[in-house]
Amino acid sequence: MSTPTSGRGRIRDILPNLIIGRHPTGPLNSLTDVPGVLVHTESLRRTTPTIVNTGVTTILPRKDWFEYGCHAAMFKFNGAGEMTGCHWLEETGFLNSPIAITNSFAVGPCYSGIYEYAVAHHKESDGLVDWFLSPVVAETYDGFMSDIGAMAVQSDMTVRGIEKASADRVPEGNTGGGTGMMCQGYKGGTGSASRVINGKRKDNKGEETDVSYTVAALVQAVSLSKFPP
User: Fold this and answer.
1) Whole-structure pTM value
2) Is residue 94 packed enough to be buried (19+ CB in 10 Å), middle (13-18) or exposed (0-12)?
3) Is 175:192 a contact under the CB 8 Å cutoff?
4) 5: pLDDT strictly greater than 60
5) Are strands 136-140 and 99-103 parallel, antiparallel or unpaired?
6) 87: exposed, middle or buried (C-beta count within 10 Å: 0-12, 13-18, 19+)?
7) pLDDT tens string 194-203
């Protein structure tokens, strides 16, 4: 996570007991509070020959995502963004891929990176491939703070993201795919949070037991509006 140059701290760090809503946070208040979920962020910053502030956020639904997929779904708020693999999710409700989030012009390299990792680790002994994979890559636009046309993101960033994904708290702010994002004229970026929901479960005999569920989110905040309305 980038150190703020102004010396300002994040509200949740300054006021650790502040809880928004009526449910308690998970231990990390992060997407990685969901058991098995792993995340890695990598940023790319340079000033020559043009200014680049971009990156990739890689989410693994579970460590062995290739052999053991998980149930998944999607919801479209509008049709302005791209997310590959969405047709497969809608048809099957199943995810056998990492989720990479990056800038609008880097969907292709991240898509290739998922394939490169999968081929390297799951090809046959003769080097051939006999399986199907539909990578999931989503994008938002960071062209106001980065030379998006520089095509700076390469497939190796996604490969590293898969290899280095961990259960640590997700870095927030100017990191990963959120590095160069703006939202309604303000600095956007990467954010994450979690909440623990208590409930009850009935077994096949109708007996109830107390259970808890962790609900978490990761947001890459961006808006195409340069200034607040």
Assistant:
1) 0.89
2) middle
3) no
4) no
5) parallel
6) exposed
7) 999 998 888 8
**Which of the 8 DSSP states describes residue 173?**
B
The string of pLDDT tens digits covering residues 12-69 is 778 877 778 889 999 999 999 999 999 999 999 999 999 999 999 999 999 999 999 9
CB 153 within 8 A of CB 102: yes
List Cβ neighbours of 140 (8 Å cut-off, separation of 6 or more).
81, 101, 103, 104, 177, 181, 220, 222
Q: Per residue in 60-97, pLDDT tens?
A: 999 999 999 999 999 988 778 899 999 999 999 999 99
CB 156 within 8 Å of CB 111: no
The Cα–Cα gap between 146 and 143 comes to 5
How many other CB atoms sit within 10 Å of the CB of residue 107? 20
Q: Which residues have CB under 8 Å from 96's CB, separation 6+?
A: 65, 66, 69, 133, 134
Token pair of 53, please? 């502030």
Tell me the C-alpha distance between 4 and 92, whole Å. Answer: 43
Q: What is the pLDDT of residue 228?
A: 44
pLDDT at 56: 98
